[in-house]
Amino acid sequence: MKQFLRRSWPDLVVVLCFLLVSFAYFATPISEGLVLGGHDTVAGMGQGQEQTAYHEATGERSRWTNSIFSGMPTYQISPTYGSTKVMGVVETVVRLCTSGPLGFLFLYLFGFYLLMRALRFKPLLSAFGATAWAFSSYFLIIIAAGHLWKVNTLGFIPPTIAGLVLAYRGKYLWGATVTALFAALQIAANHLQMTYYFLFVMLFVAVAYGIEALRSKTFGRWAKATGALLVGGLLAAAVNLPNPLPHVAILERVDARKDGTDRRGTENGRAEGGPRSGGHRRIGARLHHPVELRHRRDTHAFDAGLQKAADRAAFSNATAWMGSKATTTSINMPRSCSRPPARAISRASTSIGVTSRSR
Fold first, then answer.
1. Contacts of 91 (CB under 8 A, 6+ apart)
2. CA 235 to CA 232: how far, in whole Å?
3. CA end-to-end span of the chain
4. Are 101 and 29 in contact (CB under 8 A)?
5. What's the DSSP call for residue 277?
6. Residue 14 has pLDDT above 90, yes or no
7. CA angle 341-344-350, nearest 5°?
8. At CA 55, angle to CA 50 and CA 58, rounded to 5?
9. How many CB atoms lie within 10 A of CB 343?
10. Tens of pLDDT, residues 75-106
11. What's this model's pTM, rounded to 2 decimal places?
12. How many CA atoms does the CB half-sphere of 325 hold within 13 Å?
């Protein structure tokens, strides 16, 4: 333990300084109790209001929402699964229990510092590089804009590259472990666009190390490192499988219908077997997964229940208001009529309706 502290104390001091810098940068909003209100954050809260109400009422998470377009699955806009709670705990540990903008800035600093140290820069120079990276204007702009999934993904990219560097420098186990850890966190951040771009960076770095290995006649070590990294990448993807599996199931059925290999009947737009027996139902021009359909029906029923409750409340309020007006409001009827004509009743009810809305 003493030997570890003697060797690692400069890194521990730098990490502590990163915490202090992050807190100092956001000291004013933190002390005043302000909350980040980026456009995407606020819009996401609005889009997820229906799901939040459904979860509070039923205790389950819906995989369908009616609040976006004419309805769509929530696999990507709300990728919360019970099996990914462990990754949430791991992310909290990596952030040293920080959260919000302070946690994002610390993640920028800490992640790039790991990359610099993997490249064998000294702690002081690594800290300088991490600071320059973290305080790049774009990284702070996207925090203010509320692009929080992109922020998380960009924060986990440098340490994933650090794992690649460690593996190609002969530390196969450390390289595979670091790559698996931060690649899993990166995929869990659910900004697949940035992850897709990052794969090209990893590929180019691997090719560069491969060319160097051919020149130095150490291709065997390069192959071992590549194998270790592939294992780490597969583990990272396996941890996050609950997210893409519904998409894969639906796309396989779509491809089968396009190729004509799906022999199930589609009478009345419904696949044989239907949702109850594991099939898929066609609604319009799109195939829907059985689980998605169940949550869609539940959400529609939930919305209908809310609407009925609102209608009942509005009707009772209108009845009470009209009852209070009955003693003071009268309808002038022609003397020749024993009861109000239909036109007079129509005018009177319209007038009452307008008065009710204006009040």
1. 185, 188
2. 5
3. 75
4. yes
5. G
6. yes
7. 140
8. 120
9. 8
10. 666 666 666 778 888 888 888 888 888 889 99
11. 0.66
12. 17
